[in-house]
Design brief:
Elements lengths: L6 E3 L2 E3 L1 H28 L4 H13 L13 H27 L17
Antiparallel strand pairs: 1-2
Helix pairs in contact: 1-2, 1-3, 2-3
Amino acid sequence: MRGREHVTIAHRSISSSAQRQALSVALLGVGAVITGTLLLLIFTDHSLDRVLFEAISAFATVGVSTGITYDLPADAQLVLITLMFAGRIGTITVASALALSNRPRLYQLPEERPIIG
């Protein structure tokens, strides 16, 4: 955002592959939480704030709940279980897979400068 070519944190440069990997893992996590929240809203009658809290808590595997987990139907509990598994194992697996799938290209596409903002 500041117009610099390289990203630096604490006087260290961060490679573009590490930046792409971090962005991919973060966006996959956000997508999982949004999908889980929507499924919980479909399966239950609870409000958005309580369901969103449950989904984020499950994905982050922090063990905090609003108290609605015990009353959820089996489908909604399965969504929470999947979010817990994805939060614990999924992001590490995705990060490892992205790090190992780096193939050099034999060509380079032309550079474009799109209008941002």
